[in-house]
Amino acid sequence: MATSPAARNRPRGGLTALCVGQLSSWGLLYYSLPVAVHPITEDTGWSATWVTGAFSLGLIISAVAGIYVGRLLDHRGPRITMTVGTLLGAAGLVLVGLAPNLPMFFVAWIVAGFAQSAALYPPAFAIITRWYGPARVRPLTIMTLVGGLASTVYAPITAFLLDAFDWRTTYFILATALAVINTPLHYFFLNSRWEATGETHKARRTPTTEIRTITRSSRFIVLQIVMATTVLALFSVTINIIPLLIERGIDYRMAALALGLIGAGQVAGRVVFSVIPHGDSPKTRTYVIVIGAAAGLWAIALIPGPGWLLIAAAVLTGSIRGCHTLLQATAVADRWGTNSFGTINGIFMAPITAVGALAPVAGPLLASQLGNYGLMAVCMAALTSLVAVLAVKS
Question: What pLDDT digit, counting tens, does each position of 292-301 carry?
Answer without folding.
Answer: 999 999 999 9
